[in-house]
Every structure is written in C-alpha cells, then in structure tokens.
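Researcher: I'd like a structural prediction for the single chain below. Treat it as a standalone chain; there are no partners to consider.
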Amino acid sequence: MAALRLSSKRLLSSTLRARYASTSSSLPPTATAEFSKEARLPGYDPPADSQSAALVSQHLPYMVATYARPPQVFTKGDGCYLFDIENRRYIDFNAGIAVNALGHNDEHLCNLIYDQAKQLMHVSNLYHNPWTGALSRLLVDKTVEAGGFHNASRAFICNSGSEANEAAIKFARKVGKVVGGEKKIGIVSFQNSFHGRTMGSLSATPNVKYQKPFGPMVPGFSYGKYNDVEAIDSLVTEETCGVIVEPIQGEGGIWVGSEEFFTKLRARCTEVGAVLIYDEIQSGIGRTGKLWAHQWLPKEAHPDIVTMAKALGNGFPIGATMVNEYVAEKIVTGDHGTTYGGNPLASRVGHYVFERISKPEFLADVEKKSKFFIAQLEKLKAKYPEVISEIRGKGLILGAQLDRDPTEIVKACRERGLLVITAGVNTLRFVPPLVITEEVIEEGMKILDKALEAVVKK
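Model: Treating it as a single chain, here is the predicted structure.
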C-alpha cells in the first residue's frame, strides 16, 4: 500500500504552526498538503504543545462533552491505516467500530459517491428514486441466497443502527397489538447487550451507565440473562410482542450466543406470537465470515427481523431493518417514516458495499484471515498467560479477555501506532477492516506484543 504522499517539507513549517495555533482559527483542508512526504510511526501521544492539541483546544469549547477522546486528530485514511494531523501512521484494528469493512479511502466507493453526488443526493421519501428499492431487493435476495434469514421479504432503509432498532421495536409493537391486543407490548432484551442510545433502543440496553441519566425508560421492557436457556419460558410470555438480541454481543464483551439458546428462543417466540429480532448491526455484513452471524445457526433459529448499519455504508450513514412477510403485512402507510433514510446517495453506497461483501470469495477470505488473526492472538495468550485468559468471537469480531483494566494497554498500543478498543469488562476488542491482510495483522500483533510487554514490566 502506497505511503501517504504529501509535500517534502518537514511535518509542518514553523509558519504553519504559528498560523494555526491561534484559538481564533481552524486548520484549513489545504494545510494537510504541507505535511511531510513520508508518514512516520508515533512514539507517544501528541504533547500539549503539538498541532493536534492546538486544534483540539480551538474546537472543544463548541462541542457537547459526550466523548473523552485521545489527543490524536485524524485527517486521512488509506486501507487499514489512519494518519493524524502530524502525519503519524496508525494501524486500524477498530475500523470505526466495525464500520469501515472495506477499509479507508476505497477507490471504487469514493468514485461512486462522487458520481452519485453529482446526480442526486436527496429527494425525501415522498418520491421514488432508483436506489432505495434496488438496495432493499439486494438485501433480501443476497440474504436468502447466502442461507440467512430464509423468509426475508422486505426492508426499511434508514440512517443508523439505533434507528434500525427503533424501527424493529416499533414493528414488534405493531405486530403485538394486531395479533394479541393492547396488552401485548412487552419487549425482551438481555444483559450486556447494546442496541443504541435513542429512547427505545436505550430501553433495550440494560446498562446503568447509559440508562440512569435519562430514566425513566420506555415502559414494557424486561431483561434476561444471555445464553440462559432455562429462563426463556418465564421470560418470554403471552404479553411479549418482541425479543431483541445480538447473535454476538459486541459492546458487551464479544460473547457468542449458543445454538441451543437461539433455537429455544425462536421456538418460544413462535409459541407466544412474539417477533424475534436479531440485532446484526455489529456482527452482520461479513464480519463473522458469513454474510450474517445468524447463518452459523440452523434455519430453525432464524428471526423475523434483522437490523443492520455500520458496515452497510462503510462510513456513510445508513441503516436498515429487514423483515419477513409475517411482520411486513402488518405495517401500513404512515406507521413509520424517515426524512433522510433511503436517500439515493446512501442507498447507492449501501448497494455497492453489500454487493461486494456478499460475494462468496470475499466471505471465504474473511474466514481465512480470522484463523490467522486468532492464531496470532493465541500466541500472545501463551506468552502472557497472566494477562490474557481467553480469546473469543468469530470471524473478525474478536475479543481478548484480560486480567486488568485495558486502558494502559490501549494507550501503549496507540503510542506505538496501533488502534484498539475495549468491550464489556476488561476485554480488548478487535474489529479491523474486513480487507485487512495477513501482513498488516502481523504488523499490528507485533505492536500489541510490545505494548503488553511494556505494561507488564511496569
């Protein structure tokens, strides 16, 4: 992969540093053209007197403080690498939290976005456009063809994962009222799950940290223990209209649901007339080496609804809620809607990404790279048995369970040029671009090894 090509001047000229250090100005896009010719690996986080810190200090006073970010300011991506404003290169094992499946700056996708933006970006759902329906059909056809969600029939296109889950919850409520009356409104979800931050999806996310500041939650939600087969009958009742669950819990710590659990859940939902929703926002669209994570389950465990987002747009905002006819026939005009969702630009992006990832050879390559990635993690587990106790996950959604808070390890990785994130309790999460190569995986693992060594020696 070609190194970032910028001007031959040193990092930033002293003139540039002075010009953009002012709190009254912002770094213009053209300033990146004056970075150094060759990117370099970081050896530390940007210090307080850096260009990064100067720019951040300009912007923070105007931003709602919803995030605690490290000091890097990223300005460019290329494949599985990110480059910060000071032209330091990082291997990206995050992919924007399982979003950039095709990596950064994919040439074909960039050209497609440019081409569609010149034609038509948005007209609203008051009118038809060529791409919303084309994407909906592709999602259904490729899913059935791949062996997932065997009776999928229609899709609702929206803007994000949280919106996709909101639509699923609303659809479940509508189905419940149609088949069981006004009392059939209960929604079941599971401990350690994450379904979003809007009020409906947040109500399905039983995490005190996320829920407490915004309580009370939407009424009608109850929570069970993930993979607890014995509790399903008492948890899912005649008043349950829907069950929302992740085939692999991502945010919760990379926990894989068992075949027995999902098969029993499907049977119980069918028994009481409840809609089974699989939240595949993080685990779907090739992430596990199959188009959908639920394809690892038997047909008898397939859902009524699948929600998706993240990889569907490779960074461009889009989400979707795919349903079977049992659900679709109960949703009528006016039941739900969106202003931006399904716009021609987002839908064409989603169409391209989904078509490319759904190819059997692409998915087979993900499985191959998964085996290599896991083998590398197992080597580190053997080298640091006192730190790493377990490697779990499927495909390229993997977790390493640690004996400690991962914060220092994450920082040590970042300082050496590797971006990793956490999940659940003391878990390192690995969700790299699906196009990552074995060479880049190996390069990243060497950095992780050095980071672990540095932290363990403290």
